[in-house]
Amino acid sequence: xxxxxxxxxxxxxxxxxxxxxxxxxxxxxxxxxxxxxxxxxxxxxxxxxxxxxxxxxxxxxxxxxxxxxxxxxxxxxxxxxxxxxxxxxxxxxxxxxxxxxxxxxxxxxxxxxxxxxxxxxxxxxxxxxxxxxxxxxxxxxxxxxxxxxxxxxxxxxxxxxxxxxxxxxxxxxxxxxxxxxxxxxxxxxxxxxxxxxxxxxxxxxxxxxxxxxxxxxxxxxxxxxxxxxxxxxxxxxxxxxxxxxxxxxxxxxxxxxxxxxxxxxxxxxxxxxxxxxxxxxxxxxxxxxxxxxxxxxxxxxxxxxxxxxxxxxxxxxxxxxxxxxxxxxxxxxxxxxxxxxxxxxxxxxxxxxxxxxxxxxxxxxxxxxxxxxxxxxxxxxxxxxxxx
Length: 388
Description:
With 388 residues, the protein is mainly β. The chain has strands spanning 21-23, 31-36, 42-46, 51-54, 62-63, 75-76, 83-85, 88-90, 98-99, 108-113, 119-123, 127-131, 139-142, 149-155, 161-166, 170-174, 182-185, 189-193, 200-204, 209-212, 220-222, 232-237, 243-247, 252-255, 263-265, 273-279, 282-287, 291-296, 302-303, 311-315, 322-328, 335-340, 346-352, 356-360, 367-374, 378-387.
């Protein structure tokens, strides 16, 4: 989740069922993908060319007119002002959309841009493509015979990316910014999410959930608890331990322990859910017949109150590019230093493996940031740092 957990101060039991509430969409079209660009502004795309926009954090949604009437399957914003959906591009934050010169527009299932210029698309008719000029031109290639339907593309760095698909089924990986791809797994898959460069999850047909902790080289199957006739449509990971999955028949699953256990949440409907996205302190799911669901995000990490034996120093602050973090916590568990920007978006996770740890901030722009020092189930310390 792209959120700073300073908002999450209430402790709930681990097995609590979150309440998902239905929001009006004013459409009966199926809704296929959702994203947010700020705390207030978000977008949903769906069948028959529908684009919905919120400016109040998802409480209400309004339609945006566009010239297309075919199904829109994907929406992606590499920045707050530049965004893409099937055959359309916006350069003013989603207020207006103009036609994009791509082929196979109706078949595009996923966009992912690593910046405003370089991006990728995956389509259901075997093709994937790369652009280096903001979508003006595309270099198309075919995935045959490895996969017939490509569902999702995601990059974890400028060079390393993944695609998943089905009807042939695979996880494809690139280490050269999409110039070449190779197969690292063979499953019938619909969605992929890497909350960290090494830890990733995929979901798909037959209730399948797989996890990697070595950047996709090896995958282990997790137990979802759903019957094997369930189709899981998308996964969204807030951290490497906490993820949501949505699927057919209103299925919503959540894990807070890295996939060891999955809890089924009550969605309140039986319609197929196609996409899930979490932002700030809320999660949204969208699906068939205009379904929009929302739940408040509930942290299951306990904010530690006993600091008598826990000595932590974070210095210098302000910092000119490097931080030193000293710990006296006992190293029977893994700790992390997580950095969030002023919007609450998590921008890095750094393992704390020693009593004295050095964190490089030179890649960050000058300004203020929030941090959390966490274990798997506990928020040890929160605070603010200034990069200057």
